[in-house]
Design a protein that fits this description.
single chain
């Protein structure tokens, strides 16, 4: 070996050591300002926000670029001709009078070209989220949940850079499927992170951070629309790709490497009791409860906003307010439920099982009632808008209930159980999407009340199943063979506390 080669190797080794030292110094500075758990929480929230942005980006780009839009006069004429507010309600002449409701017939609403395109892209993304969760949970057991979570967020975001070149072509549909696959992988990975690095008494609050996806919906709906109007549709994809790459770079530097290095030694993938898992009623209760939640979300996001606009004559200028701002309330509602339930559990006010069932009750029964009543609110447009906002806020309790129960019943296999829940839930989401679309635009004979009634029935049925079979107790199949059960350690310090320091 020549002297120059040796010299180059020495320089390379010196730079490598220097780079590692810089990384450690940067991590030390960050951790001196924030606790290690807080850093993980920030990255998890930002990751789910990015996935929410990716999920809604196609819809935002389509709606923001509509060439045909209503002027104020045209929309007023449209409402006059189609809305039963003007055709079937008598406006009160003074404050002492009330609205008079007459017979309301079915109003057929044709699906526009933009609606059809948006539906295809949305369903492609849903198929991706249906394909990946269960397989991703087993991959995470082998390669590490931290690594898979980072790759999932990175893949969903970075591939958006290909959207401008494939806009509204078959390749665009394929890209949406791939994005859905990447996003579907992050859910079980996040659940494995929760049971591995977060104190059991704080798991509910951590799982509720998954609702940051809804925060992403609101961000892209408001800021994304402004970006598209200002710089063009393509820039939305470029910004999303850049944000995903930047997030992953920080995740890799400050979280993934440290968690991977300190990850406990386990061979979960070799000991999973598939038969007992698939025969477990509590596991299926979690999945079925998720179906109800996903069905309600689809009805609220796809149906109610259109109902308010086309039936009650809400101005098209309020599209963003109606469709996105309530999701901010959904996120903070989820966080509130998670903190309250963790307090109830640690205070031993009720058992974990009872607390989970209580949360499922709040996330299913009141929204079911709101959705059912929503179709019979008559002529006052404030009533359905209030019911829509309240229902979306109440469904924010889902992570503290069904999602967290998946971690309670089998901490050693939380990722796989939640992967099963997400697979079943994605199937329900696809079915709900079809029902809403057909009920509003297609062959179903029923109209708005049918759509809201079906959603209400699904919520009640799925909640009743969880009430009967759901659990917050560790199941006996959680610790087969030589895998040690993790039923204890409720007060054990989080293993993350010493990882990133």
């Amino acid at each position: 070996m020549s002297l120059s080669s040796v010299y180059e190797m020495d320089i390379s080794a010196t730079f490598k050591r220097g780079s590692i030292q810089v990384q450690k110094a940067a991590a030390k500075v960050v951790n001196s300002q924030f606790g290690s758990t807080q850093i993980l929480i920030i990255f998890i929230v930002c990751g789910f926000v990015l996935c929410g942005i990716v999920e809604q980006s196609a819809s935002v780009a389509l709606r923001a670029n509509r060439t045909a839009s209503y002027s104020a006069e045209e929309f007023a004429e449209y409402v006059e001709n189609t809305s039963y507010i003007t055709r079937y309600c008598q406006t009160p002449t003074n404050r002492s009078e009330t609205h008079i409701v007459r017979s309301i017939p079915h109003i057929e609403i044709p699906m526009s070209r933009t609606d059809e395109t948006e539906a295809v892209l949305r369903e492609a993304f849903m198929w991706g989220t249906l394909i990946s969760p269960l397989a991703a949970s087993r991959i995470a057991a082998r390669v590490g949940a931290e690594r898979l979570f980072g790759v999932g967020v990175l893949g969903a975001g970075v591939i958006a850079v290909m959207v401008p070149a494939s806009w509204l072509t078959p390749c665009h549909v394929i890209i949406r499927i791939i994005q859905g696959i990447f996003m579907g992988a992050i859910w079980p990975a996040a659940h494995m992170i929760a049971v591995t690095w977060i104190k059991p008494k704080n798991v509910s609050a951590f799982v509720c951070l998954y609702s940051a996806v809804n925060l992403g919906y609101a961000i892209v709906g408001i800021l994304g629309t402004i970006l598209v109007h200002s710089f063009g549709r393509d820039w939305l994809s470029y910004v999303i790709s850049g944000m995903a790459f930047f997030w992953y770079f920080l995740w890799w530097r400050f979280v993934e490497e440290s968690l991977q290095y300190n990850h406990p030694k386990r061979d979960e993938h070799r000991h999973l009791p598939w038969r007992r898992l698939l025969m477990s009623k509590p596991a299926w209760a979690c999945g079925i409860a998720v179906i109800g939640s996903q069905w309600a979300d689809a009805t609220l996001m796809l149906g109610v906003t259109k109902y308010l606009k086309l039936v009650y004559g809400f101005s098209t200028g309020y599209d963003d307010v109606l469709q996105y701002l309530p999701h901010i309330g959904h996120f903070f509602s989820a966080i509130t439920f998670g903190i309250v339930i963790d307090h109830i559990r640690t205070s031993a006010i009720v058992s974990t099982t009872t607390s989970r069932k209580l949360v499922v009750y709040f996330s299913h029964f009141p929204p079911a009632a709101f959705l059912f009543v929503l179709g019979y609110t008559g002529c006052d447009p404030a009533a359905p808008a209030a019911l829509y906002t309240a229902a979306l806020a109440m469904t924010g309790a889902t992570p503290a209930g069904a999602y967290s129960s998946a971690a309670d019943i089998a901490p050693n296999f939380a990722g796989t159980v939640f992967g099963l829940c997400q697979t079943v839930g994605a199937a329900g989401l696809l079915a709900a999407n079809y029902t809403v679309s057909e009920g509003l635009h297609g062959s179903f004979a029923g109209w708005w009340r049918l759509v809201f009634g079906v959603s209400s029935a699904v919520l009640l049925t799925t909640a009743a199943f969880f009430m009967a079979f759901g659990s917050g107790s560790v199941q006996d199949w959680n610790a087969p063979g030589d895998i040690q059960s993790e039923m204890e350690a409720v007060e054990e310090p989080s293993r993350l506390d010493s990882v990133l320091e």
